[in-house]
Amino acid sequence: MVLAAVALLVACDKVPLFAPTGTTIRLYTNTQVLPINGTAEITASVLESGGNPVQNGTMVTFTTSLGTVTPTDVATSNSKATVIFNAGSQSGTAVINAFSGSSSTSGSASTGTGAAPTTTTGSGVSIVIGAAAATTVVVTASPSSVSQLGGTATITASVLDSNNNGLAGVPVSFTTDQGSVAPVIGTTNSTGQAQTTLTTNQTATVTVTAGTKTGTAKVTAVAVPTITLTGPTTTPTAGLTSTFTLNVTAGSGSAPIRNVYLDFGDGTNFSLGASSGSVSIPHVYRESGTFTVTAIATDASGQSTSMSIPVVVFPAVPFTLTVTAPTGKSGVAMTLTATPGAGAPVIVSYVWDFGDGKSATTTIGSAPHTYTLPAGTTVAQQFIVTVTATGADGRTGVGSAVVTITP
Questions:
Q1: CA 279, CA 234: separation in Å to the nearest integer?
Q2: What pTM, to 2 d.p., does this model score?
Q3: Which letter does DSSP use for residue 166 in this model?
Q4: Exposed, middle or buried by CB within 10 Å (0-12, 13-18, 19+), for 132?
Q5: Residue 45: which residues within 8 A CB-CB, separation 6 or more?
Q6: I need a labelling partner for 237 at 20 to 30 A (CA). Which of 57, 261, 290, 342 fits?
Q7: Helices (H), ranges, 337-388
Q8: How far apart are the first and last CA of the chain?
Q9: Over the stretch 101-143, which tens digit does the pLDDT of each residue have?
Q10: DSSP string, 286-297
Q11: Cα-based distances in Å from 204 to 116, 252, 352
Q12: Burial class (CB in 10 A: 0-12, 13-18, 19+), 179
């Protein structure tokens, strides 16, 4: 008899305990919105008719229309049973229900063969997952304009729920009617944002789609200034002035020119300010070589364009200097002249070597001098006059002449 009772108790321990007829099951969750692969805690409150707690260990089974619950079967403790819901990788609305015995959050159940169905009250929960929770897609572009020569803009999509909170883990797609975007698919970060890069040289509208919601941003292609840079018409030579010509025009319908910058490639550069139209700019290269001259025009909106040209500067060459010395008479003052040839710079000094052991320096191309022959000299003598002229650009020219002096 005792053995039979023990066997009966063991058998009872192995039989699952379910809620009695009339039990009410209600589900509660700590959130109603989840990102893709997000998790939430689902708790079932299980009370018998009259509000009495069910027996501890009452088994409750959970079901969901989307995602998964872990575990699916849980025993109550203090009339509560809790599981973890995992949203999975699919957007949508998950409807989560639970049942125990004939009691369910989702409908009616029969109490036995031939018995009328007994309906129990209760409520499940719904959790909106990923893009299904999106109510607004706000799209911004930075910058909001690019050059007609081509440029990029960062497109930022903010996916928001009904409370304007950012939704994380939401897949979004990017499309554009002009140019290209990369990447074309993204996933929102922890603040609900996803980004792509637009590349275009035309006005473009980028459309962002998250679930059934869309948003757009427009990036305007702005006309850039035009600039023409022309090199010197004469052979550029070290020490000589080379003249460059700039022609600058603001882009059609765009902002006025704010600044024109010129770099001669030899370490010399300067800004012309709000210059437009045709401008001539002189420059002196101090050394020979090949240089790249660059001009950049920038308008008030920040759009700019540039042009570069190579310039070959030839070494400085001595200029010609013609010295004229008339025939003179011993002891009588005479005037000698030095004339620079074509292409010579402005002369800053003339150094005269009169050939008789005497010299002089002048700033003009003439110098007086008196030759004196030794006493008793009866024949004419000749002297070689050498003049060295130095130009403002550092170049030099040398000339000479023979002077005949009679007694």
A1: 17
A2: 0.54
A3: B
A4: buried
A5: 25, 26, 27, 28, 79, 80
A6: 261
A7: none
A8: 172
A9: 999 997 433 333 333 333 344 678 999 988 888 999 999 999 9
A10: SS-EEEEEEEEE
A11: 66, 19, 75
A12: buried
The residue type at 345? P
Residue 54: name the closest of 85, 30, 28, 26 by CA: 26
Residues in the chain: 407
What pLDDT was estimated at residue 323? 96
Distance CA 21, CA 122 (A): 13
Confidence category of residue 196, pLDDT binned at 50, 70, 90: very high
Tens of pLDDT, residues 136-163: 999 999 999 888 888 899 999 999 988 8
- Amino acid at position 211, single letter: G
Cα 164 to chain centroid distance, Å, stands at 29
Contact by Cβ (8 Å): 79, 46: yes
The answer to whether 323 and 400 have CB atoms below 8 angstroms apart is yes
The encoded tokens of residue 146 equal: 């690019």
From residue 86, how far is each of 36, 57, 89, 259 by CA, in Å? Answer: 9, 24, 9, 59
Amino acid at 14: K
Question: How many H-runs (helices) and E-runs (strands) does the chain carry?
Answer: 1, 37
Q: Which region holds residue 51: left if phi is over 0, alpha if psi is between -120 and 50, else beta?
A: left
Q: What are phi and psi of 9, to 5 degrees?
A: -65, -40
CA 375 – CA 168 distance, rounded (Å): 114
pLDDT of residue 277: 83
Tell me the two tokens of residue 218: 């427009």
Mean pLDDT, all residues of the chain: 88
The pLDDT value recorded for residue 14 is: 57
Distances 95 to 23, 87, 91 between C-alpha atoms, Å: 21, 11, 13
Token pair listed for 151:
């440029």
H/E segment holding residue 5: helix 2-14
Q: Name the helix (H) or strand (E) containing 6.
A: helix 2-14
Residue 15 has pLDDT above 80, yes or no: no
| Bond preceding residue 71 cis, omega within 30 of 0 | yes
Token pair of 52 as six digits: 């009495």
Query: Which residue is associated with the tokens 């290209």?
Result: 180
